[in-house]
Amino acid sequence: MSxxxxxxxxxxxxEITPQGAKNEALQVICATLLTKETVIIDNLPDILDVKNLIxxxxxxxxxxxxxxxRKYSFRAQNINLDYLKTREFKxxxxxxxxxxxxxxxxxxxxxxxxxxxxxxxxxxxxxxxxHFYGFEKLGASFDFDSEEFFYTVHADKLKGAxxxxxxxxxxxxANIIMTxxxxxxxxxxxxxxxxxxxxxxxxxxxxxxxxxxxxGSNLLTxxxxxxxxxxxxxxxxxxIEIGSFIGLAAMTGGEITIxxxxxxxxxxxxxxFRRMGIEMEIRNNEIYIPPNQRYTIxxxxxxxxxxxSDAPWPGLTPDLLSVFxxxxxxxxxxxxxxxxMFESRLxxxxxxxxxxxxxxxxxxxxxxxxxxxxxTPLKGSIMTSxxxxxxxxxxxxxxxxKGKSIIHNIEQIDRGYEHIDKRLRTxxxxxxxx
Length: 434
Ligand SMILES: CC(=O)N[C@H]1[C@@H](OP(=O)(O)OP(=O)(O)OC[C@H]2O[C@@H](n3ccc(=O)[nH]c3=O)[C@H](O)[C@@H]2O)O[C@H](CO)[C@@H](O)[C@@H]1O
Ligand SMILES: C=C(OP(=O)(O)O)C(=O)O
Prior knowledge:
Oligomer: single chain
Radius of gyration: 22 Å
Number of strands: 23
Bound molecules: uridine-diphosphate-N-acetylglucosamine, phosphoenolpyruvate
CATH class of the largest domain: Alpha Beta
Distance between the termini: 10 Å
């Protein structure tokens, strides 16, 4: 288990370019299983989850080749489905959440797929019902071995269908889309997730010859085709990393420019930071955060306390709520952070309270933060990163705090943030891996 040692209290300064998006990368790597032809993916982030998934698909038989720093080619000509029954596969699949998205392509191409319990953040119940509801609607049978925790789907024949999803699951929608593109007939998915990751997946699939309409909305219509060809795809910048950098700059009083910031794809993220009182200038494809901000959280028009809460896209992504929460600890004013989707993602506030933050955890989903208005800095502390986004929130807290902090279990952060220590050092942060 590695740790970060951080000396806080130094404003960050400079320019930074975000990595490619983790959640898009996981979708499009799985999509390479849909064709025998070569797919080239550019801007893949060099993070643990992506490395693990590339390893997994290679073990499954996909020929993978690193073409340059962030560019890989994938060729899924000879797939060995027996690998899905091995102990090695169970271990690899359990290392990340996104691995579940190999099921849709395998079902589409080979009419069967198996999967053990996927990994990912331990942030509350993470059900998979929507995935299997969709597969069943397309004609697959589904079995669950509760002793072995093993999911199986198989079909003699798949057929396009109408479906109304019970929830707009991101990986669930991606899985169903990837089955439907090779399923004869018309599939209509209503209440589909439409996060930028899903939009990007659909665009990539259309460039491979799929026929998907309604991209960017919650109503997708897919005309199945008999086969897909190869393509070249470039991953967008990671909007969660962009939000994390905005939060870090605000908390440390720093001045940064975020290059290649995907400004058209940020949805309500800039608005939510502005509601926290954080100023930013969006210029062309860059975001500039001015220095020394003493931000004041807005109230609602009627004067009531601001709530920052998550919702499926185009609502605010749940993956940034931990960052909003930590940023609020130094604001002028109060905010209610309401994490609606996940049940165990706010418990890390105990660590912020130890550092001097004023937070009341109302229940597992809601925390009220009363800002310190930059009058008293947080104090350095020793802590353990419970999940990827809480980990980054603790890192932001440590970089803004007075004195030294140690953050353990940083593998959680490495799952989704590329060489974060090295990149933050270029902005003047005092952080080292120990
Ligand atoms: C690898 C990957 O891409 N992971 C992302 C993906 O996870 P993942 O696809 O696993 O998450 P889902 O979208 O399935 O669901 C997330 C949580 O929200 C709940 N839910 C979801 C939709 C809805 O309309 N109502 C509702 O309550 C679900 O029950 C679940 O607890 O999407 C999540 C939600 O954006 C993100 O946090 C994860 O980073
Ligand atoms: C919850 C997250 O990831 P995963 O779904 O991969 O666990 C996240 O990226 O914040």
